[in-house]
Structure formats: C-alpha cells, structure tokens
C-alpha cells in the first residue's frame, strides 16, 4: 500500500499543471486500480467521462502511466498495455 500511496502522490505532482484532473485521476486509481482488464476498462471509461475536455492532461496522464506503472501490480501492467494500445496514438476515447 505504501508503494500505491507514493505512486498516487507522484502522479498528483506530475499532473500539477491541471491539479483538478490529477485529483480525479488519483482518487479513481486509489479506488479502482485493483483488478486486471476490468480495471483498464473502468479507467478508460473514467477518462472518457472526466478528461474529455483536456487533451493535454490526457496525453500527460498516458505518458505517466506508460513510464511509471509498467513495473507495478498485474493490474497496472495490464492497464499500461491497454493504455498504450488505445490511448497513446488515438485520443478519441478521451476527447469525445
């Protein structure tokens, strides 16, 4: 859990250009980043709902995920791969 907390705190700092977005993202991650593919699907849906007006934040968040979550839990690894596939070159799901 300590690792989780550090990751969430770092994410908030990394996304400080839009702290509201960072707060939403960290709260979602804390609550839902716990179960493999379902987690990825949930977070993608969350991003579509809450980050839709901020392309820069979406891009920044994806970059953070790819860089910092790949070595974490199974959920994080699967989630990162999912993000790379669906968000890194196509932001339509979060810009709709």
UniProtKB/TrEMBL annotation:
Q: Which UniProt keywords apply?
A: Signal
Note whether Signal occurs among the keywords.
yes
Keyword Signal annotated: yes
Signal sequence annotation = 1-22
Source species, domain of life: Eukaryota
- Protein name stated in the entry: Secreted protein
